[in-house]
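User: Can you write out an input/output pair for a complex, sequences first and structure second?

Assistant: Here is one pair. Inputs:
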Amino acid sequence: MEKVKLLKIYRKMLEIRRFEEKLYSLFLTGIVPGTMHQYIGQEAIAVGVCENLRENDYITTTHRGHGHYLAKGAPLKELMAELFAKKTGCCRGMGGSMHIAKLSSGILGGGGIVGAGIPIACGAALSAKIRKKGQIVACFFGDGAVNTGAFHEGVNLAAVWKLPIIFVCENNLYAFSTPIKEAVAIENIAERARGYGIPGIAVNGNDVLEVYEIAYQAIKKAREGRGPTLIECKTYRYKGHARFDPGTYRPREEVEEWLRKDPLVLYQRKLIEMGIIDEKKSEEIEQEVRKSIEEAIKFAKASPEPDIKNSLEYVYA
Amino acid sequence: MPEIKQIDTIAEALREALREEMQRDPAVILLGEDIGEFGGAFQVTRGLIKEFGKERVRNTPISETAIIGTAIGAALTGMRPVAEIQYADFLTCCMDQIVNQAAKIRLMTGGQAKVPIVIRAQVGSATRGAQHGQSVEAWFMHTPGLKVAVPSTPYEAKGLLKMAIRDDNPVMFFEHKLLYGSRSPGGKLKGTEGAVTTVKPAPYEEYTIPFGKADVKKEGKDVTVVATLLMVHKALRVAERLEKEEGISVEVIDPCTLVPLDEETILNSVKKTGRLVVISEDCTRGGVGSEIAAIVAEKALDFLDAPIKRVGALNTPIPFAPNVEKHVIPSEERIFLAIKEVLSS
C-alpha cells in the first residue's frame, strides 16, 4: 500500500477518535442534547472497510454511526452540527446521533432499531445490481443485530439473489450489557455464513490493515457479481453502550486487556516501524485533526436551530 | 361508435396499472411472495414475470421484513418498488420496516431521502379466520409519513395504483379480497354478497387519480354515508333499498384515500344533509370511522341534526365460523338500521 493511503487511514482513524472524545466532553457540559453511542475503540473497522469504497458506493450504519459517517468521507462539520441539533446538520437537526445519514455521500442511514438496516442495505444492493453502475454496499451492524430476524431475512435474500454487498459485523462482545456468550452459542459469528451459502471470515477488528485486506477481497468479489461475504470483526467498545452507561458489567481485566490492543496505538506503532511516520509527522496530523474539529464546533455553535414553523416540512416529500 | 373495451375486475385493473407503469418507467420493480410464475395469491401479477422478466418481477422467500426492507433500500437509491404482502395480516411481520423505517426516513434525514414505495396488501374478511381476514387500515392512518389508499372499483384501483407508484412517499395500498373479481386457480369466482365489482370499470387509456379526492358514488340529500372498500358496495345497495322502500335520499361518499383524506367533500356533504354514518370493515374501536367521525364532530358539529353513527366490525378478532363472522362484519342490515337510527333523531 502506498504511503499516502497509509497516512490517510491513520488520519481518518485519529479524526474519529478525537471527534468522539471531544463529543464526550461536550455532552458532559450539557451543550449537546439527547444521547450518543460512541465508536471509540472500533475505528479500524469503519476506516479499513470504507477505504475500499468508491464515492458512489453505499453504506448503511447503525445507532453507533459517527465513525462510519466520517470514514465514508462525509463532511465533519455537518455531523457536528447535527449532534448540536442545528439546521445546518447533515439531517437538518431532525435525525440526531442515532439516525445519521448523508445520501450524497452514499450513507443511507443509521437507526435506533437494531438489525433493521440490513434488509435496507440489501435493497440498495438490488438497486445497484439492476442499474448496473458497478456499485456495492457495505452494511455495518453489531453483534447484537445477528440475533434479529432482519439479519436472517436480509443475509439469506442477499445470498439467494447474489447481491453486491458485504456484511460487516462489528463484534464488540456486548449487546448493550449482554455478553456475546449469553446471546450466541457459536465461537465465531462468521460461522453463520455457511448456513446461508456465503463465505464468512472472522478478522481482528483492531488491525486496520487486516480489515482493509479482507474487505478488499470481499468487495472485489461483490463487484464482480459473485455475491456477498460476511466479515466478523472482533473488537471492543471503550465506552459503555450509550452516554448514561458506565459499562461496569465488564470485568476490569478484560477492559485493560483490550485497551492494550488499541487499534489506533497499534497502527501508529506499525507506521513508525515502517518509517512512514515519526513524532513530528504524527503531531502535525494531530494538530490538523484538532483544528478541523474545533472549526466544526464553532460552525455548529453559530448555526441556527431548526425553525419550528416548519415542523411538518419533512413528513412527506 | 366502436365499443371501447373496459376492465371490469379490480385484479385486472391493478395488473394493467402495474403493466403500464412498468412499461413507462424502468425503475418500477415488483417484490413479493408467489408473485412470479404463480401470479400472486390473488392473481394480480399474473403474466407480468413473462412480460418483464425475473429481474423486475422478483419472487421472494417468505420474508416480509426483507421484502419491505429491500423495497426501502431500492427506493432510497432510485428505484420505485411495488411490494406485495400476501395478506394484510402479515404486515405485522414487517411493521418495523414500515413504521420505523419507511415512514420516518424522510424526516430522520431532514428531507434528503425520499421513499417511493407502494405496499399492496389485501384486507377484508372472507371465511379464512382471524389471521387472514383483518382490516388494518387504521394502523397506518395513525402513522405520519405514510399515505393510505383504499380503492373500491376497477376505475379507482387502476388510477390510484398508478398515482401511488408515481408518489415520492410510501403508500399503503389496500385491496379488498372480495372485490378482486378474479378467478382463483381452482376456478372459483371470488365474490360475495354486496360485491358489485363492475360499478365503475377502468378504461385501458392512460389516467391517474389524485390522492385526497373523494368520489361521491351517489348523490343524496337526507344523510351522508362515508364508506370504504367493500362497504361502498354494501352502502350503495342499502341506499337503493332505502330510496325505493322509504323515499330516503342517501349520499354515499368513497374517500378513495384515507391519508390524505378529502375532508372538504365530507364536511360539505354533512353541512348539506346534517347527518353522518361512517362504515368501514375494520373493528370500530380506534378505527377508520372513529377518525372521520372526530373530524366531522370537530369541524361541523353545528351542522349536525343527529349524533354521528359508526358502523364497523365488532371489537373482536375475526372468527372462523361463517355465521359468527357474518355477525361480526358490518352487514347490509346493520347499515340499514344505522341509517334509519340517524334519521329518526
